[in-house]
Amino acid sequence: MTTIAWCHTDEDIRRELESSNVKAAAGAATTSRWAGNTVRIWVRHPSDPRWESCAQTVRDAINTLNGKMGAGRLQLDASAGGAASASPIWVNFGTATLPGKGERYQDRAANVSVGIQQGEPIASNEDGLIEAAIINIGHDSHGAEPCDCFITEETVIHELGHALGLAHHFDGFDGEVAISPLFWNVLATLYGNVPQSPYATLAIERIE
Predict the structure, then answer these.
(1) Looking at residue 84, what DSSP letter applies?
(2) Is 164 helix (H, G, I), strand (E, B) or coil?
(3) Is residue 164 within 8 Å of residue 150, measured between CB atoms?
């Protein structure tokens, strides 16, 4: 059995943030993120009862992320209720992109995109700001492997990380380990610094 040691330096955190962060342009040397430290998120009420447990998992994941990050750094505000237009992050159920040939359904249990049932990744504008994201949870077409069985709180937090500006996977933020202490510290550093902060001079934040 392999034991993963989650000891990491400030340079590890800085490097993984720079490699993972959504970029306003190729080679951009500054951070991209949401403009404020409170980001509104709308969780669509599932029309199909099959997704009710997943909706609760999403709510639990939002609460966990808010508790970890703290009010002064980052909070997801789900209080908009049914007002989808008031929330730049949407969570939809049954709309994840379907797996390609040779892929397992559980490997495509959820994704973050610019649209519903789309695979195009989110981007930031020229000011390094993310303005919209869709989190697609689960498939309508399950085949022999129902992917909704694999949607855990960790899976949802992982997708929230993508929606908040972590575009690319790294150790502790991938298929084997959806989230880890390194993930939390990278996300905390992104939101502990203002948008368009130079990667080279980031103030490193640690919460794990």
Answers:
(1) G
(2) coil
(3) no
Distances (CA, A) of 44 to 55, 75, 95, 128: 8, 19, 12, 27
Which pTM value belongs to this model? 0.90
How far apart CA 182 and CA 42 sit, in angstroms, is 27
> Each residue of 59-76: pLDDT tens digit?
999 999 999 999 999 999
Pick 150 or 143 by higher pLDDT.
150
Question: d(Cα 195, Cα 63) in Å, to the nearest integer?
Answer: 24
Contact of 191 with 74, CB cutoff 8 Å = yes
Spatial distance between the Cα atoms of 169 and 161, rounded to a whole number of angstroms: 10
Q: Closest by alpha carbon to 116, among 140, 96, 99? A: 96
Per-residue model confidence as pLDDT tens digits over 161-179:
999 999 999 999 987 788 9
The tokens of 114 are what?
A: 């610019």
Partner residues linked to 92 by β-bridges: 136
Question: Which residues fall within 8 angstroms of residue 162, CB to CB, at 6 or more apart?
Answer: 111, 112, 122, 133, 135
The rounded distance, in Å, linking the Cα atoms of 187 and 173 is: 11
